[in-house]
């Protein structure tokens, strides 16, 4: 197990709410997003014992910054959590990787000497703020330049997942087998108490609401493709239409918070670091395929870290759609038996802005539970991007 230096950026606390169904019937629907995030912020300072007044900044990811998630939700959650008014907060959007990017920004701030103590967090209430709610009727968020560069038009993420499945020749059975296993792994982890240390119950919800232990390949096989329409079918006639609600991540509600300090601050405060942020990168990728950025991001973070694939004990690759992880494993050669070992977003859920911090919280705990040294997390993102982060257990 590695030791940390005073200059390292180290994780000293990580918590998440249970993930709720992103529907009006979901257990967290009645919790306003700012309060959902505030809950995780309060819990991470309570667990670490850090005085909130000593927090230099709160950086929070949120994707749909509209309605209940508008007006800099990070600052509103800081105030709602009861932190001193002197504690600032800022909200970032790197699509699905927003709170993983928040972790990167927090670590970079610590390494640069700008922060001693910072919280990277994220939130999304997809039941209250639907995807796309920030795009007003008649608006053109892509601008003329993108339209001219991609005259055939870009597509929604579900179509990108279909394109990936077709390009990597992934069968419907392979996709459903992977998805059923995600539910089975998550169900086992929940039953064995592997999530207990990271969860902070809220609104009566004590466990992840979406995991279905009885999911099988046979039940998934009965689901119909989710993204087919005649127009898109005519544009991409080679697609066999394999992406269903069962091999996609579900709409979800949740929040998570990760406290990052300098090694010196951790020593001064008597905190025991869980891991150090070893290396972080971000990449851009083809915005039509959109979700394949995890492949070059993995290569880049390994090259920058000086580590090899064999050095990594655990991988977390966000399960936005099953073909994302399967194409990544094919091209990188990574071992799927060491990937998403406690299940992934297909089973647990994908509350967009919270997922980076949620996955990091789960990954840090899994690394300790399994006694590994290095872990790698990567997430595909809307617009064709990906983050990748390597942590080292301390």
Automatic annotation (TrEMBL):
Q: Which SUPFAM superfamilies match?
A: Thiolase-like (SSF53901)
In what residue span(s) does the Thiolase C-terminal domain sit? 271-393
Asked if the keyword Iron belongs to this entry, the reply reads no
- Note the PROSITE patterns from the entry: THIOLASE_2
- The answer, when asked if Acyltransferase is one of the entry's keywords, is yes
**Where do the catalytic residues lie?**
96 (acyl-thioester intermediate), 350 (proton acceptor), 380 (proton acceptor)
What domain of life is recorded for the organism?
Answer: Bacteria
GO molecular function (one): acyltransferase activity, transferring groups other than amino-acyl groups
Keyword vocabulary terms for this entry: Acyltransferase, Transferase
Family label: Belongs to the thiolase-like superfamily. Thiolase family.
Q: What is this protein called?
A: Acetyl-CoA acetyltransferase
